[in-house]
Amino acid sequence: MRAFTYRGPGVPAELTEVPTPTAGPGEVLTRVGANTVCGTDLRILRGEKSKGVELGVVLGHEVAGYVEAVGEGVTGFEVGDLVSMPPSVCCGVCGPCRRGTEHLCDDVHLVGYDINGGLADYWLIPRTAIDRGQLIKASGHVDAAQLALAEPISCCLSGLDNYRVEVGDLVVIIGAGPIGLIHLQLARIAGARAVVVSDPSETRRATAAALGAGVTVDPTAEDLPAIVRDMSGGEGADVAVLCIGVPQLLNDCLNLVRKRGRVSIFAGLAGEGWSNIAANLIHYREITVVGASNSGRENFVRAVRLIESGAIDTASLITHTFPLSRATEAIEFVASGEGIKVAVIPD
Question: 20: which DSSP letter?
Fold first, then answer.
């Protein structure tokens, strides 16, 4: 089979021929339906994020596929089933796992890092994932590329659980990339009275408006803080979600929320992630600042059900598709910042 494999930090990945895996005891082999490309894939290839990434691993962690073969001892799956799974395979015994936060596992194994991912013709689900109930079946009517978005949606749900949106809240989202557009939709589902989306791209602002943003703002030409003050009677937003990894934007978020408001640092920040922040804003205004990282099985199941129900508009997020034979071009296209979400589909 063909597989897009990692060759080292800063070294171009290659589409090579590798042996097609078989489903051993406790394993499931899937024929890849689609793999959507994440900014993390780009950071891995650039050498910006290489810790834990094994040489020769098949990249791609936003995957959906069709069951091709079921290994001995596996029940509940049949050939042809459409499936996906969260990329974090936890140990189940460390402190975070015991506390119900398996996505923060101290001994986690990750699809696209040390478990082969979905930029290939076939994707083998390891026994550990099957044993932990992580392979999730979806309704047959769902498009594979849209199901692949269960991974970023589940991560956004994990973030939402931390920063909370209450009925009647005013929410500000910084960045209208795929993650910002998912947070926009989740905020509306959660009951926000209005969602403000800030992004310099006219195309992405238009998509945000189509997906339900009450107001879209070009931060290079408009006064975002003034708009938020006007919409909130001078108090500030209830929630601000940072969906762009630019450190200085964290202070912007702190200045946008009201006293006792909530700020989510959802995006991983550039470089080592250091940011000079106005800590007194947090102190005197009693602002809650939370992070978000990965997702576990529960949020992944919730994401799949949202996709199945149509509550999340995934079709609007996938703006470009590439065949597997052009995987390098697909990732380069993501780097260009054009479009929203790119899907790679085996040809």
Answer: P
Look at the pTM and tell me if it is higher than 0.85. Answer: yes
In whole angstroms, what is the distance from residue 303 CA to residue 233 CA? 34
Q: Is domain 154-291 annotated with CATH 3.40.50.720?
A: yes
- Rounded Cα gap, residues 119 and 325, in angstroms: 10
Selection from 41, 43, 45 nearest residue 8 by Cα: 45
Of 138-147, 236-245, 272-281, 290-299, least confident by mean pLDDT is 272-281
Residues 295-326 pLDDT 10s: 989 999 999 999 999 999 999 999 999 999 99
List, in sequence order, the alpha helices (H) in the chain: 39-46, 95-98, 127-131, 144-148, 150-163, 178-190, 202-210, 224-231, 249-256, 279-285, 297-309, 327-336
Pair type for strands 28-36 and 122-125 = antiparallel
Distance (Å, whole) CA 237 – CA 170: 5
In the chain, where does the domain assigned CATH 3.40.50.720 lie? 154-291
The pLDDT of residue 275 is 86
Tell me how far CA of residue 8 lies from CA of 13, 189, 234, in angstroms. 8, 41, 51
Range(s) for CATH 3.90.180.10 in the chain?
2-149+314-345
Residue 8 banded pLDDT, cuts 50, 70, 90: confident
Class of domain 2-149+314-345: alpha beta
